[in-house]
Design brief:
The protein contains four helices and no strands.
Length: about 140
């Protein structure tokens, strides 16, 4: 039996998204100075957007709103993955340095997908640890 969720901070997907954001900050700290307002800023914004949207959606206390924010978070994961793929093309960073962030991003994406599906189906998810919210009907 899973512990009851008291806050968005209890959601495994939010915790993993926070880890991803932290990893992205560490990665971009190694980028050349001229990328401060380029890829570095884009990666950081996309990475921070993921747990922020999960938290904001959770706080809305309506299933439809929560799902919408989870989908926005999923879009931010895809944006982040694209940025992480791009960094090796102009040689901002090697693909090997960005790979750990990409791996966690893929994991977060899968967790989000599972959570979205479980809420749509009306059942709890392993990525969620929380019963579905009330419907907004």
């Amino acid at each position: 039996m899973r512990p009851k969720v008291q806050s968005y901070e209890d959601l495994e997907v939010w915790q993993m998204a926070m880890t991803l954001a932290e990893q992205c900050y560490r990665l971009t700290a190694t980028f050349p100075r001229e990328e401060t307002y380029g890829l570095s800023a884009q990666i950081r914004r996309a990475a921070v957007s993921i747990p922020a949207n999960i938290a904001e959606g959770y706080g809305r206390n309506q299933t439809g709103n929560f799902l919408n924010f989870l989908r926005i978070a999923q879009g931010s994961v895809r944006e982040l993955e694209t940025h992480l793929l791009l960094v090796s093309r102009p040689k901002v960073a090697d693909a090997e340095r960005a790979a750990p962030c990409r791996e966690v991003a893929i994991r977060v994406s899968k967790m989000l997908r599972a959570l979205i599906r479980s809420i749509e189906d009306g059942r709890p998810s392993a990525a969620d640890n929380r019963p579905p919210l009330t419907t907004d009907h």
